[in-house]
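Customer escalation, tier 2.

The customer says the design service returned an amino acid string that "doesn't look like it belongs to this structure." They asked us to rerun it and document both sides in this ticket. The original structure tokens are below, unchanged.
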């Protein structure tokens, strides 16, 4: 007796549905196209995006700035709550706000979504969020890729990554080379947890026996709503600032992401200088105190993981500080002076028995040091 004929194996039976991918593209096309200005050539569906950079001829020495990132385990919360239209803004923020730190204007962004199974509506929600983030940042979403990985990822699993390119005039690049003793450090409010430290946050919530649908009085909403608050995009406000007379006093910017405030600020402080940051100058949003309390998280660990209420920092000339704060606050971005730049030998040593923390030599940068001192209003050491 002959063996039965084998059943034909198709790409679809192997777990990849190309028709679902096509439907996802149709659902997202309008949102993507809305980010395109006249400098974008072609439309959605091309093998690569085309950007007319004729305007760069007006630069004396244009430098391209590039960045790439993801949003980490914040995605686990989006998946748990089946809410996917905000995670894209997080992605854009993590990328373009790294670019603006150099004083560069982001021009174009691409995204990559890997998933276990293409659910067109879910993919479209993610991309709509990316497009919204690009709109807020003033850059174009010029391309992307959605990859279906059955057997490698679970049916409801996905991850996102993105990359962007921007431009800055060489003579206007911001960074540690401009920082001087006497400069003032200005902190700008975050919108919440942003997109870092969610492995810690998730562990704390789980250990406390709380669910994402739990309403927390101090937050005025559920834990899930708080946790999925999109990362603030600072790009446009900062680019507007840099075009003003006050902006000429900006020497460096620092995006507070993984590693926290001190570790990231130390990256833009040159050797021979240090920064003293006074925690008493700002009060973190309630979610930060809740995470600390629920998990008995040491302050040093909390600060090395979360943004603690400040998502972007500027180091500015002392004579420009007041005008910079007024410009940012006037644009709807709360800001205040949180510290000062000192000569390294003038930086106080951490006080024994206090909550002082001295951070230096982070992210592979051999630069200055940052001393975190004092305590946030209403917090105990």
């Amino acid at each position: 007796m002959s063996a039965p004929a084998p059943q034909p194996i198709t790409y679809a039976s192997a777990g990849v549905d190309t028709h679902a991918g096509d439907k996802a593209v149709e659902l997202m096309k309008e949102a993507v196209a809305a980010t395109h200005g006249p400098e974008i050539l072609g439309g959605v569906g091309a093998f690569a995006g085309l950007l007319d950079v004729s305007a760069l001829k007006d630069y004396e020495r244009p430098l391209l700035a590039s960045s790439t990132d993801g949003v980490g385990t914040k995605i686990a919360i989006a998946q748990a709550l089946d809410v996917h239209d905000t995670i894209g803004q997080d992605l854009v923020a993590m990328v373009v706000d790294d670019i603006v730190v150099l004083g560069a204007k982001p021009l174009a962004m691409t995204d990559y979504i890997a998933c276990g199974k293409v659910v067109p509506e879910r993919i479209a929600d993610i991309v709509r969020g990316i497009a919204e983030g690009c709109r807020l940042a003033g850059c174009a979403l010029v391309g992307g890729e959605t990859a279906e990985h059955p057997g490698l990822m679970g049916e409801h699993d996905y991850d996102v990554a993105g990359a962007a390119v921007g431009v800055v005039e060489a003579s206007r690049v911001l960074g540690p080379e401009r920082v001087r003793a006497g400069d003032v450090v200005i902190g700008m409010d975050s919108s919440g947890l942003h997109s870092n430290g969610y492995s810690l946050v998730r562990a704390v919530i789980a250990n406390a026996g709380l669910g994402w649908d739990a309403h927390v009085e101090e937050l005025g909403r559920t834990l899930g709503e708080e946790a999925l608050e999109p990362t603030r995009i600072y790009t446009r406000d900062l680019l507007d600032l840099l075009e003003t007379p006050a902006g000429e006093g900006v020497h460096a910017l620092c995006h507070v992401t993984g590693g926290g405030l001190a570790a990231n600020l130390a990256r833009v402080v040159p050797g021979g200088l240090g920064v003293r940051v006074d925690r008493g100058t700002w009060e973190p949003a309630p979610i930060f105190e809740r995470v600390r309390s629920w998990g008995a998280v040491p302050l040093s660990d909390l600060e090395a993981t979360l943004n603690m209420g400040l998502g972007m920092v500027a180091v500015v000339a002392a004579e420009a500080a007041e005008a910079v704060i007024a410009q940012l606050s006037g644009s709807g971005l709360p800001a205040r002076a949180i510290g000062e730049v000192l000569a390294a030998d003038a930086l106080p040593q951490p006080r024994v028995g206090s909550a002082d923390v001295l951070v230096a030599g982070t992210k592979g940068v051999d630069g200055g040091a940052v001393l975190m001192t004092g305590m946030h209003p209403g917090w105990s050491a």
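Tier 2 assessment: The sequence is consistent with the input. The chain is about 30% helix and 25% strand. The mean pLDDT is 91. Sent an explanation to the customer and offered a walkthrough call.
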